[in-house]
Every structure is written in C-alpha cells, then in structure tokens.
C-alpha cells in the first residue's frame, strides 16, 4: 500500500524552541516510518518580517542541522531549503491570482503579526499563506503535521486546492492538517496566555530553546508563571500549571491520571524541578547531536543537496501542470 505523503516546514527565524519541537518536529521524527516525508526550512517565509541577511543565512543552515539532530533521517525523509526550489514562489504567484483578498484578511496570524509592528506591515506578510499553500500543494501532500496555530493556513490551502481543481480540472491533492492533542499549543513560560513564539525570544524567560544549557533550562522553569491555587491538576483554566503539565506529559508520555497522582500534595517548586529535569533529559541527545553536526558542514551540505534534487523533481512536475492548466506559456 502506498504511504501517505507528509509535508511540513519551519522558519529559520530565531532559535527553534520547545513549542516548535513538541508541536511539530517531534511528530515529524516519530512518524517517519509511517509516511513518505518532505520537510523544508522555509526561509522565504522568514523574510515576511525584516531579517538581517547574514544572520538569516546562518540560521537557515543551523536549523537544518538542528532538524537532523532532532532525528530527521535523510534515508526516510527529504530535507531541503525552500529558496533553492523556485517553483515555491512561482506557484505562490499563481495561487495568489485565484485567492480572494477577503480570505487572506481573515488570517489571525496576519492580524497578530501586523499588530506587533503596525508601522511596517509588508505585503509579503499578507500574502504569506499563499506561499504556504504553494509549499504544500507542490508536493501533492496528503498530510501537514503542524501546531494548532497553523490550522487556519492549512484550511486556506485546502480551499485553494478545491477551488483550483474545480476551475481548472483535478490537479492538487487536498491536504489535511495533522495536529496532535499533546504539544499542539505550548505557551510562553512568562505569559501562559500567549503561545511560545520565536519572535518573543528577546524576553528572557519566554521560551526554552533546544540549544539552551541545563542550567538555563532550570533557571527558566523556576521563573515560570503559575498561580496562587497550589493544586497541581490538568485544568485548562489555570494556564501556567496546565502548560507545565502539558510539557511534562509530552516528554514522559504518562497518562493524565498518573501525572496528577505523582504530583498530588506537592508544591509548584517540585513540579517545576521535575518538568525541567524531563526537558533536560529529553533534549540532551538533540543537543549532543547538534554539537557534532555543527562541525560536519560537508555532510550537511550533501544531505541538503540530495534533498533538493529529490524535491525538485516533484515540484517541477506539479508546477508545469498547474502553469499549463492556467494557460501560461
Ligand atoms: N507554541 C507552539 N506550540 C506548538 N506548536 C508550535 N509551532 C510554533 N509555535 C508553537 C509550530 O512549529 C512549526 C514551525 O513554526 P514556524 O517556525 O514555521 O512558524 P511560527 O508558527 O511562526 O513559529 P513561531 O515560533 O511562533 O515564530 P514567530 O514568532 O515568528 O511566530 C509549525 O508547525 C507551528 O505550528
């Protein structure tokens, strides 16, 4: 039986954090056997917010190394850099021309990100979901494993595929989001009402980066915002404690009842200490692998080149068909 094809991407903006890992990358890694996998460092998405060119270049390669360190296996998955394959931006233009402005205006991520920087809202940020649709549709992807925050963009990609197929004939596979319950929305440690985000990493206790040292991880969890109730339970109305328990569950894979029993009668200090220990242990092999990979630049470039040529073959076929159907010469 043919495996379903999975596509997902991650932006090289800032340092990859626990939310990116638990919401997306960990699932990519764990399901590599089950699916046919295509993973991409989406650097063209990153420039929808102004970036320093040399830092962007460096972070792009760093993130590729980090994905391999997390366990992306090049024998089971295609890994490549988005800007190396021009069909992504070419298809994004074709999709832009069939997407109503109203659909893009409804995107909550655009509203959030433009509210953060109201004096410099770039057209690229508004159009970003079409580039994401192009990423997904180019590879005829069945499934898109993402965190909860990306659900709306995947729905737009589905609508776009359905619209194109209706108007120009069957062309794209209509993708489905793949969002797991645990880890789908990891919140900021400093403010558990806001999602953990790379763009807030200037706040010192907001996020845990995968490259943070054990000392830093302990320090950040110690400062995590909780509440004054003093009871350790999976209660969504108590966002701080819930977030810590959610992170703990992602690493220990224990059931809710087991975790609540483990912490019955304990204080928040103990909870923070145990969560920090679980995270440190869970991230240790990743940090070690990342350090090793950072000195193996030739290996990294070879993997990326192989990924690129495999991805290009699929992307070129889909783009050619789409272009012809639309009537472009
Ligand atoms: N807090 C989160 N919890 C769970 N999943 C998350 N993801 C992001 N934040 C969380 C998922 O990580 C994948 C890669 O995200 P991205 O880098 O492409 O885009 P993003 O959502 O814009 O990531 P950030 O970290 O929040 O960056 P900024 O600050 O730029 O907005 C996606 O699958 C995403 O769902």
Q: Please report the total strand number as a whole number.
A: 5
Major beta sheet, specifics? Answer: 3 strands, parallel
Main CATH class of the domain at 5-183 and 297-326: Alpha Beta
Q: Ligands bound here?
A: adenosine-5'-tetraphosphate
Architecture (CATH level 2) name of the domain at 5-183 and 297-326? 3-Layer(aba) Sandwich
Average pLDDT metric = 95
CATH topology of the domain at 5-183 and 297-326, by name, is Rossmann fold
Measured as a percent range, the helix fraction is 55-70%
Morphology call: globular
Outline the structure in words.
This protein is mainly α and 329 residues long. It contains 13 helices and five strands. The protein has helices at residues 18-30, 43-46, 53-70, 87-96, 101-105, 108-116, 123-138, 151-168, 214-222, 239-252, 256-263, 268-294, 297-326, and strands at 5-10, 36-41, 77-81, 143-145, 176-178. Helix 1 (18-30) links the parallel strand 1 and strand 2. Helix 3 (53-70) packs across helix 12 (268-294) and helix 10 (239-252) crosses helix 12. The chain is globular, with a radius of gyration of 20 Å. Adenosine-5'-tetraphosphate (AQP) binds at residues 9-11, 13, 19-20, 23-24, 146-147, 149-150, 184-186, 195-199. The site of adenosine-5'-tetraphosphate has 20 residues, from strand 1 and helix 1. Catalyzes the attachment of tryptophan to tRNA(Trp). This is Tryptophan--tRNA ligase. It holds the Pfam family tRNA-synt_1b. L-tryptophan binds at residue 135.
């Amino acid at each position: 039986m043919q495996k379903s094809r999975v596509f997902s991407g991650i932006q090289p903006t800032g340092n990859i954090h626990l939310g990116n890992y638990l919401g997306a990358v960990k699932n990519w890694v764990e399901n590599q056997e089950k699916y046919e996998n295509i993973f991409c460092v989406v650097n063209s998405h990153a420039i929808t917010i102004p970036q320093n060119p040399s830092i962007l270049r460096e972070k792009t390669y760093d993130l590729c190394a980090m994905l391999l360190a997390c366990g992306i296996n090049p024998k089971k998955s295609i890994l490549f850099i988005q800007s190396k394959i021009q069909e992504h931006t070419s298809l994004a233009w074709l999709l832009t021309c069939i997407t109503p402005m109203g659909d893009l205006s409804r995107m909550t991520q655009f509203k959030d990100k433009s509210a953060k920087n109201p004096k410099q809202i770039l057209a690229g940020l508004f159009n970003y979901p079409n580039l994401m649709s192009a990423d997904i549709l180019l590879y005829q992807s069945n499934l898109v494993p993402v965190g909860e925050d990306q659900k709306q963009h995947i729905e737009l990609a589905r609508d776009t595929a359905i619209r194109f197929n209706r108007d120009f004939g069957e062309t794209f596979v209509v993708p489905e989001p793949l969002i797991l319950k645990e880890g789908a929305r990891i919140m900021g440690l400093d403010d558990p009402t806001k999602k953990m985000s790379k763009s807030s990493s200037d706040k010192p206790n907001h996020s845990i980066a995968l490259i943070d040292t054990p000392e830093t991880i302990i320090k950040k969890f110690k400062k995590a915002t909780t509440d004054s109730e003093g009871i350790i339970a999976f209660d969504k109305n108590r966002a701080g404690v819930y977030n810590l328990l959610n992170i703990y569950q992602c690493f220990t894979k224990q059931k809710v009842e087991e975790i609540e029993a483990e912490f019955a009668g304990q204080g928040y200090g103990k909870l923070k200490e145990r969560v920090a220990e679980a995270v440190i242990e869970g991230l240790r092999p990743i940090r070690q692998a990342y350090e090793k990979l950072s000195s193996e630049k030739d290996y990294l470039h070879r993997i990326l080149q192989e990924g690129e040529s495999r991805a290009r073959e699929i992307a070129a076929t889909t783009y050619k068909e789409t272009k012809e159907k639309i009537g472009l010469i």
